[in-house]
Each structure stands twice: as structure tokens, then as C-alpha cells.
Amino acid sequence: MAVPETRERRATRSGFGRVLVAVYGIFALSASARAGVQIATKFSEAPLAFSLSALAAVIYIVATVSLALDGDVWRRLAFAACGTEFVGVLVIGTYSLLDRVAFPEATVWSDYGQGYGYVPAVLPLVGLFWLYYTRMRVRNVKS
Questions:
Q1: Distance CA 28, CA 65 (A)
Q2: What is the pLDDT of residue 102?
């Protein structure tokens, strides 16, 4: 006799996920405020850096919302946001170290997020791990 199976998935916003959503929310707010002030007051000084700060803010907003909501679409969007964020931190972090002239002003991801205590370099990895940890699992149910 076969053992019945059930599919379970923890919500990404449960348990540790609440902390993760809160941290992403803080970064969404701080990156948005930073980019807004930079673009409004001195965009001509470093348009590339300030545009990248705005892009980071959008990615943090998407990650925050998608981690806070349930469903397959939100989960895929969260995975895409965290993955894009990680690639962005690596690419922009490396580029900012190699070409200081292109980055006269720092972005959220400059120097791998040094201005934010390297949290931008670690946060997407934590987000990706959490998405993996809360993935759909098949469980055997005892009758």
C-alpha cells in the first residue's frame, strides 16, 4: 500500500522571513531616499552612479513586496529580484573598484556595499537561501 503524499510550502514571510522582509523594506526605503536626493540635487555629477542607485531601489522594492506575498508568481519574482541584486552587487562592486572615474559618488552596491556594511552583498544570498528553504516539499502522510 502506497503512503499518501502531501505538498507543503512555508510562506516566505513566516518565521525568519519576517526579519528578511523587514530588512529588505529598510533597504528599499533607504536606497529610494538616497537615489531620490542624489538625482534631485546633483544628478549631473554622477549620472551613472545615481541611476544605478535608483535601479537598486526598484529591485529592493520588488524583493520586499514579492517576499512578503504568497504564490508561485511572487516566489519567482522574489527569486529574480534576489538573483538580479546579487549579480548587480558583483558587477557594480567590481566595476566601481576598477573604474573610480565612472563612480565619483557611491551607489548602494559600490565596493560591494561597503557603505552599508556589506549587507547588500550578503542580503541576496540570504534571500535566495530563504526561497530555497521554503520551497515546495513532498511529505509522506501516515494514515
A1: 10
A2: 86
Tell me the average pLDDT across 93-118: 91
Please say whether the beta carbons of 86 and 124 come within 8 A.
yes
Residue 12, C-beta contacts closer than 8 angstroms, at least 6 positions apart: 20, 21, 67, 68, 70, 74, 75, 78, 130, 131, 134
Read off the pLDDT of each residue in 94-114 and give the average, rounded to a whole number.
91
Over its C-alpha atoms, the chain yields an Rg (Å, rounded) of: 18
From residue 130, alpha-carbon distances to 17, 42, 48 in Å are 7, 37, 32
Contact 108, 120 (CB under 8 A): yes
Decide: 34 and 91 in contact? Cβ < 8 Å: no
Neighbouring CB atoms inside 10 A of 42's CB total 12
Quick: pLDDT tens for 3-40: 555 556 677 778 899 999 999 999 999 999 999 999 99
